[in-house]
Amino acid sequence: MTNSEILSALRLVLDEVSQDYISSAEYNNAINQAQMLAIHRAFRTGDFRCLRPLVKETDLLLSGATIPNDDFLYPLAAYITKNTVPINFTNSSKMRVTYAEPNVYWGYDGNGLLILPPDIATNQAASVYFYTTLKNNETDATTVHFNTQNDNATSNVFIRLLYVKNPIVVNIYGGTNSTNKISLPLEYHPAIVSFAAELLQGIDVNEVERGDLVFQNTRQNIERFGNL
Amino acid sequence: MTALPYVARMRQILHDFETPTSKGLFWQDDELVLCLNIAQYSILNTALRNGTVHILDKLLKIIPVNFGDNLPVDYCQALTAKVKILMKNATGGTEEHFMQARLYEQGEAYNYITTNHNKLLIIEEKVYPYNRETQSQALFTYIKYPSKITLDTNDAEFGLSSFPEDVYRNIITILAIAIAGYKEFSNSRDTKYYKKLVDYISSLGQDHLPYMQDIENVMPKEMKPTKESDNDK
């Protein structure tokens, strides 16, 4: 749906066709909030059809490297390879690497590399790799941390990371430019519109207007503001 | 897809047409068409989520893809894939065959990059067919997006039907009517406006209240004006 169609749909279900109660900033705010909610819900429920346009892949050669453009939202999957740059996508020497929360990751002595007891049959030690992402401040870029040495400490490893990026901030008054559109697939636009409409209706109906009459001849109890 | 018969059906069910005693329309044509489009995308999503893909038969599309190709522009959901393999024939030459492959998408695909079976991986917006561990080509079956429902006869998608007729008529149209109904329903927001209006009109005097439209249906019970005859009792 185009931006104008989304705006028309919002105005239709809110019955805002003949009046302008809701400002343009509130429309944009609600759409972006609804889009983020749809993304969080899709990630939580494993609905990757919804997230497909937001999935990005990046190669990182150094632990602590920043993700380009700082648009990281959720980690999806990753693998590491012992080969030198450029990482060969079809190379068979790649190993799975598991995401760990930062506090778990830094808790390991090996910083992302766990050597398990050797297998009795093969007498080879299995290694489990971990990686983590870190964002110190809201304005900082997200960094990815992993162990850059393989289990024998003989060669460097590199990581290829698949992640969900942040969506583009929608400006429904910004015309048909693709940089303003909802990032999620078309079939999720009705859900976003309906939730944005619910938010806008809530702003309107549930707002606390100072001095407005709650019931006839009854003012709001301002002292409850202190929660005593 | 042409919206004309479905807009007419919506108006019929919504009782939104002009008569000698009732002039003007409540819903514009554009609004009803918008509702039809929202309804079809919503139903598409529901069908894919619930696995009721039999109503999406007209949206199936099969295309040949090479390793690393971008997903098609109209791509919505992958269904199946067959990868190309070369087999020896009786005369000693080779023949192309297509064998069923497994589909893995995004994060799941990372697990199966090096496994030894036919597969098609979808990572980011690209497809990677493998004949076992070898890069290959494939026949890719997917569900595309439905054509836009429009009243514009010059639109390229005007005559393109994406669903069976009964789905348009009995599912999409009925959901579109429900969406269009939000414009008409009296909700808590309307109640708030009426409350403000009642406050204002009350300041003018009780006599004005009965003239408000729909006052019996919309106003909360405690806010309804007291009739003078009730006070007398």
Could you please describe the fold and organization of this structure?
The complex is a heterodimer of chains A (228) and B (233). Chain A is α+β, with helices and mostly antiparallel strands and 228 residues long. Chain A is elongated, with a radius of gyration of 25 Å. In chain A, strands 1, 2, 3, 4, 5, 6, 7 and 8 form an eight-stranded mixed beta sheet that branches. Residues 85-92 of chain A have low confidence and may be disordered. Chain A contains five helices and eight strands. In chain B, strands 1, 2, 3, 4, 5, 6, 7 and 8 form an eight-stranded mixed beta sheet that branches. Chain B is elongated. With 233 residues, chain B is of the alpha+beta class. The longest helix of chain B has 22 residues, at 29-50. Chain B contains seven helices and eight strands; from the N terminus they run ααββββαββββαααα. At the A-B interface, helix 1, helix 3, strand 1, strand 3 and helix 5 of A face helix 2, helix 3 and helix 5 of B.
Summarize it:
Chain A is an alpha+beta fold and 228 residues long.
Describe the structure using short key phrases.
heterodimer; A: 228 residues; alpha+beta; eight-stranded mixed beta sheet; B: 233 residues
Low-confidence stretches of chain B: none
Order of helices and strands of chain B: HHEEEEHEEEEHHHH
Gyration radius of chain B, in Å = 29 Å
Number of strands of chain B: 8
Q: Mean pLDDT of chain A, rounded to whole units?
A: 76
Summed over residues and divided by their number, the pLDDT of chain B gives a mean of 84
Question: Secondary-structure blueprint of this entry?
Answer:
The complex is a heterodimer of chains A (228) and B (233).
Chain A: H1 3-13, H2 24-45, H3 48-51, E1 55-60, E2 65-66, E3 72-81, E4 94-99, H4 102-105, E5 113-118, E6 125-134, E7 143-146, E8 158-165, H5 189-205
Parallel strand pairs in A: 4-6
Antiparallel strand pairs in A: 1-8, 2-7, 3-4, 3-8, 5-6, 6-7
Chain B: H1 4-14, H2 29-50, E1 60-65, E2 69-70, E3 75-88, E4 94-105, H3 106-109, E5 119-123, E6 126-131, E7 134-135, E8 138-144, H4 165-181, H5 188-204, H6 215-218, H7 228-232
Parallel strand pairs in B: 4-5
Antiparallel strand pairs in B: 1-8, 2-6, 3-4, 3-8, 5-6, 6-7
Helix pairs in contact in B: 1-4, 2-4
